[in-house]
Amino acid sequence: MAVIQTKNLAKRYRKIEALKGVSLKVEEREIFGLLGQNGAGKTTLIKILLGITRETLGEAYLLGEAAGTPAVLRRVGYLPEDHRFPDYHTGHSLLEFYGSLLGVPRGERQKHIPEMLELVGLKGRMHYKVRTYSKGMKQRLGIAQALFHNPDVIFLDEPTDGVDPVGRREIRTLLQQLKNEGKTIFINSHLLGEVELVCDRVGILQSGELIREGDIASLTRQRGLFLIGLAAGQTFPQPEVSQKGYAVTPRGEFWEVALTDGQSIDPVVDLLRSRGLSIRHLVEKRQTLEDMFLETVVAAQPGVDEPVTRRKGRPNSMRHDL
Amino acid sequence: MKFLAILKDSVREAVDSKVFFVMLGLSTLMIFLAASLSFKPQPAKDLFDVLAFPLNSDWTDMTPEKWQKLGKMQDQGKLHVYQVRGVEPLNGAKDAPGSDFSVIVGVRFAKEEEADKVKRSPEGTVDLLKSRFGAFDELRVVEVTKVQLASSDNRNLPEKPDPKEVYFELETHPTSVTLRLWPHEPSIFFGAFSLSGLKTVPLGLQLYIIEDLIVNWLGAWVAILLSIVITSFFIPNMLRKGTIDLLLAKPIHRVTLLSFKYLGGLIFIFLNTAFVVSGMWLAVGLRSGIWATGFLFTILVITFFFAVLYAVSTLFAVLTRSTIVAILMTCFVWGFLTAMGYTYKFVEDYNHTKKTELAAEGAQYSENWFGTGVRFVHFILPRTRDLDFLTTRLLVRDLLTANQIREQKIDTTAISWGESITVNCVFIGLLLGFSSWWFATRDY
């Protein structure tokens, strides 16, 4: 059963179409990353799923029920982007407040608040006012409140925003642990490196449309491009490989072999071995998620982010001064 | 549990703001000032002089004109048929409202023969003194337990008794209203500053002046203004981007959330009002000995008054998400409602006068468009001025006599409480209903 599902979900804010018929599914125990440029509609999608914003068209389901109902929200944790906790609370009292709204019994709240704050590294500061927290600490507190009631589904909008590298690694570990516990996690993030490390599947949202979706491995795999490295002192037989119809390019100490349609890397390997050469490195070259993202986004809407400096003359904002 | 959580959150937010401490400080200061009041009873004779005064005339069916005429007669010395000639305590302290007293009342006659006749047969005057001495307005200020002709050796008799005067000795016992009719000299800061200008004023009237000052002036203006400021933060802060997302993602219906937030603000103000009013009631009660329970009811009236204004604040907070707009609009509506109340009263008085004038001439009065418009607006808008009346009446009930109410020119116009409270409740309901609908249907 899909834990999160949308069908032709559309949202219009007056003249702006924030979502244009988005259909996606996230399965149980999956970490799903939603990528997209600013204003692509990522946060709108999450807000619709949580009932904070209402869809214009289409359907949204969470845990098999209509999204946004109190019964569903009881099983959902949420860390919004640009969250703003009431700064008159302490970390402890904030979890106490949210825990009460979530219906967590008092005894459980008293027991779990210190545990949860310890988990995110805030136990020592739990009785300090939120206004004294750094950005990273507020982010950790945000994660704590999202996980506090042991939800089945967790929505995290930019979870590592403002967190230092050590903290990011801790969050990644935590997410993996939550996945192992059977949680479903939905992440919005600009930090593609983070997403690549933690997500099972990703979707790319561009101007309100889901333009690509799949698991990380399949999206970043680049078919037909291999990197080969030989033992020290051995020479790569470039002319012979080229004669067999492969395009060969030196890449530092390695050689990049490009396959055309229908070709296999096996004849190249056979050739090297028949020459008595020792293969020390053979790997199918993959794109990073960032490469794939940029390629996808630019292909979908080329020239959107064309830098102003490429234009001739002064930027538009200054032209009226002339 | 959710309601308590939101209430606690509102209290936490209010405590965090400095305005709360200003309000708490003012409340504590008011209680301290009340606790520093002292009331020194004036000589018992002052009270008994007042109590003898009604024996000199027929007090039934008194009109303002009759009161004026009586006042003139008293000034001219024409009303002194019955006069108190001496007072001394039978038990208890001298000049203490709780003591029993022996009072010598002299009854002056035009001729000695008339005086001698009464001395021989005093029963009629004894009955009169027994039944009417100590009655003031509708109240029995002291019980007359015994009346007899004063014996000639009574040391309170004048050194040279007037042959036209007959002296009676009365024994009195205090009643539940003796204290509040007894003139006292008030002072503040535990006797440091005497308010001697009020020393001829009965204690009840003094307390009315003090409590009216607090409830209708300080209570209505300062405390409610501060309450508006404190609570106006609650909803705009809740609706801030990044804060509202966290709340709406919790399993609580939006209408419930807004209602709880409204009730939280209201309860917060109720608690603060209860603190200051009951604190003052306790302080004034301990210092004066008068426990006017009507003053305590003003907690509910002030809270209800605030409920009307907080509904306005909630509406503008939901519509604009701005604290400043919520405060300004609430103050504007408050001012408008007050102005409407006074305009309505003016129109009513004007209509009444005109009707009476024209009726005398045999003509009929027809109201102009302005009067009709004012009456229509008054009908559909909350009657905050009625609540002022209610507050005054609650205070008056325990502290003043009918005569004092007339003297203080306190408006006792009949008000349809059912209609007034219904209109106020409907207004609150409509504003909160619209606010809830708006809040429930917006995207955040």
Description:
The complex is a heterodimer of chains A (322) and B (444). Helix content of chain A is 34%, strand content 29%. Chain A has 322 residues and is of the alpha/beta class. In chain A, the strands form 3 sheets. Chain A has a 6-stranded mixed sheet, sandwiched between helices. A 4-stranded antiparallel sheet of chain A has the order 2-1-4-5, with helices on one face. In chain A, helix 3 crosses helix 4. With 444 residues, chain B is an alpha+beta fold. In chain B, the strands form 3 sheets. In chain B, strands 2-3-7-6 form a 4-stranded antiparallel sheet. A 3-stranded antiparallel sheet of chain B has the order 1-8-9. In chain B, a hairpin with a 4-residue loop joins strand 8 and strand 9. The longest helix of chain B is centred in the last third of the chain and has 38 residues. Chain B is elongated, with a radius of gyration of 29 Å. At the A-B interface, helix 2 and helix 3 of A face helix 1 and helix 10 of B.
What pair of chains forms the biggest interface? Answer: A-B, 31 and 28 residues
Cα shape of chain B: elongated
User: Distance between the terminal alpha carbons of chain A, to the nearest Å?
Assistant: 62 Å
Number of strands of chain B: 9
Mean residue pLDDT of chain B: 88
Fraction in helix of chain B = 55-70%
Order of helices and strands of chain B: HHEHHEEHHEEEEHEEHHHHHHHHHH
* Helix/strand class of chain B: alpha+beta
Largest sheet data of chain A: 6 strands, mixed
Please state how the strands of the largest beta sheet of chain A are arranged side by side: 6-7-8-3-9-10
The main pleated sheet of chain B reads as: 4 strands, antiparallel
Query: Quaternary arrangement of the chains shown?
Result: heterodimer
Distance between the termini of chain B: 25 Å
In percent, how helical is the residue content of chain A?
Answer: 25-40%
